[in-house]
Design a protein that fits this description.
The complex is a heterodimer of chains A (252) and B (344). Chain A has 252 residues and is α/β, with parallel strands linked by helices. Helix content of chain A is 33%, strand content 27%. Chain A has 9 helices and 12 strands. Chain B has a single domain (16-343), classed as Orthogonal Bundle (ABC transporter involved in vitamin B12 uptake, BtuC), CATH 1.10.3470. In chain B, helix 1 (4-30) packs parallel to helix 13 (287-313) and helix 3 runs parallel beside helix 8 (201-220). The longest helix of chain B is centred in the first third of the chain and has 36 residues, at 52-87. Classes of the chains: A alpha/beta (252), B mainly alpha (344).
């Protein structure tokens, strides 16, 4: 579905990833891991056509992303960032309805078909009961679910999420990632999310894309655990990664 | 589709505002320094009167003023709503991009600098010159902001550029004021106070069509504005052409706020407060509802302010309309700000 063809990625003048290739397929939950500032967000933004690669190309269903019209791409890739949306007088339902923009007419009128998609999206994200609440009254966890429902309403085969768990407490993080896993498996979507939650990523994701500066390594979760890459990357003076349990522990 | 209950509320609110608009417009035709009964005003409107005095008062003075009030209120409010959504800032208004300072520079150059050069000051020349220069000034500033912002991704940078340009221009205007003659200074100050009554019937033929074009652009921007509620990154991933959208919104604002400011002077707070009033009463963020609601609220409020001026004027005190709009608008904005802060 999304193919990275020998890409080089930079943030300003700093090169983050060089000459990396891989393929992200539908029906998979992919966790994007890496230390701070290694280019996880930059990569996600490039895949959403919000940024550009400095060399190589990104292809969506075989077509170069640069050649796809914005309106067409909006029906293929949905994007969720960390920004909290605080809009006065905007209801949950109306926010999710904005996700229908790539399909509505010039006035943005919502038809019965659109309404059905909106209802189903809210249902899947588990926010149907909040439909009339104002978005500025939501908790962070609720807000993140609403933004995922909006991405679902966009009805795209791929959803990219930039650190969707960052403001959530532990139970909510698991809840949210379980929801993402369900979207990948049951709705047959290609779901890619960046995260710092090693435990969650290793227990729920089908594959791991690891930014091992300056390369992006992508392999099934089990292979990644055994590869030794995670130990090497997340090893520091005080903590280490234990491949046997798949978790970080303190060094003694 | 909204829940049907909200839908009915909206229809009722629109009906109330439309009735208020009609009633205030009639009040505006009836109020003035000369006492005229309803019958005479009606006769003048449908062309049945033979009294030239009545005809002049109703058709040449009161009617244009009512129309200008409606156009000014709707136009300023519609551009205020667009600016608030585009900049995602509740305190943005039609003047954030420096339109008012551009217009004031144009007028200052005309009223203050012209006499220095020894150019004549015939009244028709003054009236046309002020309007024309104000429009050129606001359009020039907006083009400058757009040119500076063509490479800028972050919308708040544009906001800061607009505000800084405005401050710089105010300083230049200050210098011109300092150097101007007493008489020319008065002409400039009178323009800054704002007035709805100075627009002539002939000028209406320019003002009304331009405002209508601006409103049509605002209507074209409805869907992009809805998507922009979530910010520009989201808007781009939902297929919105940001550059084109900014262009449409900036153009609409120049045509709406720039034109009104050119003809009536800078009118404060209406454009800033009315979108909030519309959001509070209609309880929605959808621009399909909010855009017409804001325009209606703006027209109603401006008519009310104009009417208050007229009533005060009967006692011999001529208040500039700007004083009334500020007194009406400021409490609304303070209320909105306090309410938003308390909720967080």
């Amino acid at each position: 579905m999304i193919e990275l063809r020998n890409i080089t990625l930079a943030f300003g003048h700093r090169t983050l990833i060089t000459e990396s290739s891989t393929l992200f397929e539908r029906g998979n939950l992919i966790a994007l891991l890496g230390r701070n500032g290694t280019g996880k967000s930059t990569l996600l933004r490039a895949m959403a056509a919000l940024g550009r690669v400095t060399a190589g190309s990104i292809a969506i269903d075989g077509e170069d992303i640069e050649d796809i019209a914005a309106a067409t791409l909006a029906r293929k890739i949905a994007f969720v960032n960390t920004e909290r949306v605080d809009v006065e007088a905007l209801s949950v339902h109306d926010l999710v309805a904005i996700g229908r923009a790539p399909y509505t007419d010039w006035m943005g009128r919502i038809g019965t078909d659109d309404e059905a998609v909106i209802e189903r999206s809210m249902e899947i994200a588990g926010i149907a009961s909040m439909r009339d609440r104002r978005v500025d009254t939501l908790s962070d966890g609720e807000c993140q679910r609403v933004m995922i429902a909006r991405a679902l309403a966009q009805d795209t085969p791929a959803i990219l999420l930039d650190e969707p768990t960052s403001f959530l407490d532990l139970p909510n993080r698991y809840e949210l990632c379980t929801l993402l896993r369900r979207l990948a498996h049951e709705e047959h979507k290609c779901v890619i999310f960046s995260t710092h939650e090693l435990d969650i990523a290793l227990s729920l994701a089908d594959s791991i894309a690891l930014v091992d500066t300056p390369h992006l390594k992508h392999m099934p979760t089990q292979s990644m655990v055994q590869s030794g890459n995670i130990e090497r990357l997340f090893d520091s003076e005080h903590v280490t990664f234990d491949a046997a349990t798949g978790s970080i522990r303190l060094k003694r | 589709m909204q829940t049907s209950k909200a839908h009915i509320t909206h229809i009722v609110l629109f009906a109330i505002l439309a009735v208020a608009l009609g009633a205030l417009a009639i009040c505006g035709l009836l109020t003035g320094t000369t006492e005229l009964p309803l019958g005479d005003v009606w006769d003048a409107l449908i062309g049945r009167t033979t009294d030239v005095g009545t005809q002049t008062i109703v058709l040449k003075m009161r009617m244009p003023k009512v129309l200008v009030a409606i156009a000014a209120g709707a136009a300023l409010s519609a551009s205020g709503l667009q600016m608030q959504t585009l900049f995602r800032n509740p305190l943005a208004g039609p003047y954030v991009l420096g339109i008012n300072s551009g217009a004031s520079l144009g007028v200052a150059l005309f009223t203050l600098a012209m006499p220095m050069l020894g150019v004549g000051t015939a009244s028709w020349f003054m009236s046309f010159g002020i309007t024309g220069m104000a429009w050129i000034g606001s359009a020039a500033i907006l083009m400058l902001v757009m040119w500076l912002s063509r490479k800028i991704k972050n919308i708040n940078t544009i906001l800061i550029i607009g505000m800084m340009l405005g401050s710089a221009i105010s300083a230049i205007v200050g210098i011109l004021q300092y150097m101007g003659t007493e008489e020319s200074l008065k002409a400039f100050i009178v323009w800054t106070m704002g007035s709805l009554g100075t627009v002539t019937t002939e000028q209406l033929y320019i003002l009304i069509p331009v405002v209508i074009v601006g409103m049509m652009l605002a209507i074209v921007a409805i869907k992009p504005l809805d998507v922009l509620l979530l910010g520009e990154s989201y808007a781009r991933t939902m297929g919105i052409n940001i550059k084109l959208t900014r262009l449409v919104i900036f153009l609409s604002t120049t045509l709406l706020a720039g034109t009104i400011t050119a003809f009536c002077g800078p009118i404060g707070f209406i454009g800033l407060a009315m979108p909030h009033l519309a959001r509070m009463t209609f309880r929605t963020a959808s621009h399909r509802v909010l855009m017409p609601a804001t325009m209606l609220w703006g027209a109603v409020s401006m008519l009310l302010c104009s009417l208050m001026c007229d009533i005060v004027a009967r006692s011999g005190v001529m208040l500039p309309v700007n004083t009334i709009t500020s007194l009406l608008g400021v409490p609304i904005i303070i209320y909105v700000v306090i309410r938003n802060r308390n909720r967080q």
